[in-house]
Amino acid sequence: MATKKNFELGDLVWAKMKNYPFWPAQIVNPPVANEKAPLDAAKGLPKKKPSTSRKNQHHVLFFGTKNCAWILHENIVPHSEEMLNKEIKKKSGSYVKAVKDIIKASVGEDSVKVINHLDLLKSATQRIVKKLLNSGHNVSVWNRTPENCQECVTAGAQQFSTPADVVCNCDIIFCCVSGSEAVKSIVFENCGILDGLEKSEPGSKGYIELTSMGPVTLLEIYASITGKGGKYLEAPISASLDELVGEGLSVIPVAGNRQLLIDCLSCFHAIAKQICFMNCEVGTASKMNLLHSILKDFTLAALAESMALLEGGKHSHLPFSNFLPLSQMASPFILQKCQAMMNNNL
């Protein structure tokens, strides 16, 4: 379990607090200090503003509990399969939910010209590949563990041994992995994406990044890809595992090279119901994706609070569940989550 030198906003991690095991979490923005600090009633002096950054610490959101805390850098490790497989003596309901949440958040794949690290997401990856194959696309796959491609190959995909080989043999390359470090490895490593672009005619290859990552890494990857003559699109996926293995993604935000989007629209339509093109400025789609996630989280928190108030007042959920579909809040998302909470399945 090695610690990482630098963490970026949005990175998936495992963080440890005193008396608790390493817990699934995500690096998030720290609380914002008020411009005007309140007066200390005892001394008549302004109180110190809450710190928005702390040396050698990161502000994290713990999955499962939704609590936030400042954690020392040395007590944080990157999300990995090793951490998922780590055994702990007692697994509470919150811990089990936290593990499920970080798996959903990682949404890493390794096919269609798509690259995956977590075996737990293998079924979702295979579903995406099959959707592309069923819609008439020629699909090539690569995985660090070659046998993980077997089902995709059986379905009709062609397997290559390196990311560079994928680039050389495919016009459009989709990359979706578990986070920033995984993307860097695939792009910059020997026989990686950049090596493949160097062997290709400038302007002939399109690279589509499905991984959600921080702005620093995003722009670094963008500059590297375009610097080697590749066309670039960001299309960060933020979806539940149910969406990936079910009917498909509801919507994917996209920003970057407009012509590349036009060239691969049929691919997007095979895996998502709708595409929302933001603009040509790389970074916009990730920002919109983050804002959407914040809105969704606040909505879920408000719904959970409403259910808790019902339980605290010893009221049945039934009247509320009957009223909600008739109100202005009657969206499929809210109704589905309400039912899940009633079934204790969220």
UniProtKB/TrEMBL annotation:
Entry's Gene Ontology cellular component terms: chromatin
Cross-referenced PROSITE patterns: PWWP
A Pfam family this chain is assigned to: PWWP
GO function terms (MF aspect): DNA binding; NADP binding; nucleosome binding
GO terms for biological process, alphabetical: transcription elongation-coupled chromatin remodeling
Domain PWWP as annotated: residue spans: 9-82
Family matches, as InterPro entries: 6PGDH_NADP-bd (IPR006115), HIBADH-related_NP60_sf (IPR051265), NAD(P)-bd_dom_sf (IPR036291), PWWP_dom (IPR000313)
Top-rank taxon: Eukaryota
PANTHER family registered for this protein in UniProt: CYTOKINE-LIKE NUCLEAR FACTOR N-PAC, OXIDOREDUCTASE GLYR1-RELATED
Record protein name field: Putative oxidoreductase GLYR1
Species of provenance: Trichonephila inaurata madagascariensis
Gene encoding the protein: GLYR1
